Amino acid sequence: MIWEIFRQEREGLPFQHGGSLDAPNLAFAEAYARELYGRRDESFALWIVPREAVDEVRDPYVADVFDRDYRRVDGYSLKVKLKEARERAGTAGAG
Amino acid sequence: MNDTEFQAYVQEGGQVETGDAMPDDYRKALIKFIEMHGNSELMGVLPEREWILRAPTLQRKLALTAKVQDEVGHSQLIYRVVEDLGKPREACLDDLVAGKTKFHNVFHYPTKTWGDVAVIAWLVDAAAIISQKALLKCSYSPYARIMKKICWEESFHILHGRDCILALMTGTDEQRELVQEAVTRWWGPLMQFHGNPIPADDDPMYRWRIKSQANEEARQQFLDGYVPQIWELGLTVPDPKLRKRDDGVWEYSEPDWDELKHVVTGHGPKTKERLGFRRWSREETVWVRNAVLADAA
Q1: Size of interface A-B (CB pairs under 8 A)
Q2: What is the ipTM of this complex?
Q3: Which of A21, A22, A46, A57 should we substitute to test contact with B (largest number of B Cβ atoms within 10 Å)?
Q4: Chain B stretch 256-275, residues whose beta carbon is closer than 8 A to a beta carbon of chain A
Q5: What's the whole-model pTM score?
Q6: Sign of CA dihedral B234, B240, B242, B245
Q7: Phi and psi at residue B81, in whole multiples of 5°?
């Protein structure tokens, strides 16, 4: 049985995929994961997940297919509008 | 995507994951390359294992045991990648002990003294880490990802190797002689390690961007990084032609490519004995695997 191992390098950091291992059950998976991914004190925590439990959704199916730029940073362009507003207010070039 | 388009895709920096469609030739090349790497990690512990009981101090014994465990751990991680590509670990081990697949030239040689152990940890691991660092950019992402962890541990081994070397070099004349003899013994195999200087474009591993570095480029990097370190300790290298040109390129005597070919095809001084040991230990431990699997069933 294949297990995917995610490691957290230090407390508070996000978990990252480290690799996988082959173990017949959770007890062995845990023992192997500690040996393979933690024995040099390189991980603060480990997530040990059966491969089948991981559901992957991948580009181009991750983001919404419709144009919803109001949900993204690039949906807002302040530069031109700010310039115009400053000109109206007579503060253009002030900063 | 046909094969040509796929090759262009990876050449332009495209990455590949386990579940992706890929040309058969790419999959075969990956298996061949990665399996050989896994074999080398597993066989590479045998020359060092021979010195665990003879290590000069308890500290060295523990450090060497830890290094051996690291290398076996690497082979486990690497065989896992091969398994996901379609070749089970048991099949890899079958082929290894049957002599059907290869492992790195340097692991076919004997370790005569503790000086050899120090030189292996220092220079053989240094040569290996140069190839492995280039694999961080491999087009096959699962392999590149585990390489990050492997390189981190390998750099630890070089540290351990340098420490062993420096302990000997600051010791007695006899100890310095041990190191010099070992450097002299290992120089030939080290120069062969990165392979013959075929142009990158003729190397299928390079075309698929499994490797991202030509053989000669790796060797030059090794020479540039380590020859000065060898010289500064007062050690010599058994190659009168070795020198760095003004343009930064290292010149050296042509390595013995016939020896390399002869050794990696299973005719090294220790090939038979080490494969025999691997076969024996696999038979001896079959009850452990059976017990583990029976317990889990």
Answers
A1: 39
A2: 0.74
A3: A22
A4: none
A5: 0.88
A6: positive
A7: -65, -40
Task: Judge contact between B80 and A21, C-beta under 8 A.
Answer: yes
pLDDT per position as a tens digit, B270-285: 999 999 999 999 999 9
Contact B80 A39 (CB under 8 A): no
Residues B190, B196, B201, B207, CA torsion sign: negative
Scanning every residue of chain A, which has its alpha carbon at the shortest distance from the alpha carbon of B144? A19
Residues of A in contact with B297 (CB under 8 A): 24
Q: List the structure tokens of B100.
A: 């059907």
pLDDT in tens, B52-107: 999 999 999 999 999 999 999 999 999 999 999 999 999 999 999 999 999 999 99
- Tens-digit pLDDT profile for residues B194-218: 999 988 788 889 999 999 899 999 9
- Which residue in A19, A37, A40 is closest to B80 by CB distance? A19
Does the domain at A2-53 match CATH 3.10.20.520? Answer given as yes
Interface test with B, best of A3, A7, A20 (most B CBs within 10 A): A20
Classify each residue of B45-75 as buried b or exposed e, where b means 16 or more C-beta atoms within 10 Å of its C-beta.
bbbbbbbbeebeeeebeebbebbbebbebbb
Neighbour order of strands in the sheet with A2-8: A16-22, A2-8, A45-50
Domain residues of chain A, as ranges? 2-53
Which pLDDT tens digit goes with each residue over B140-186? 999 999 999 899 888 889 999 999 999 999 999 999 999 999 999 99
What does the alpha-carbon distance between residue B35 and residue B79 come to, in Å, rounded to a whole number? 7
Beta strands in A1-95 (DSSP E): 2-8, 16-22, 45-50
- Cα B103 from chain centre: 8
Task: Look up residue A14 and give its DSSP letter.
Answer: P
The Cα B214–Cα A64 span in angstroms is 42
From the list B190, B187, B168, the residue with the least C-alpha distance to B177 is B168
Q: Is B189 helix (H, G, I), strand (E, B) or coil?
A: helix
CB spacing of A42 vs B152 below 8 angstroms = yes
Residue B85 phi, psi dihedral angles, 5° rounding: -85, -5
Three-state SS for B19-87 is CCCCCHHHHHHHHHHHHHHHHHHHHHHHHHHCCCCCCCCHHHHHHHHHHHHHHHHHHHHHHHHHHHCCC
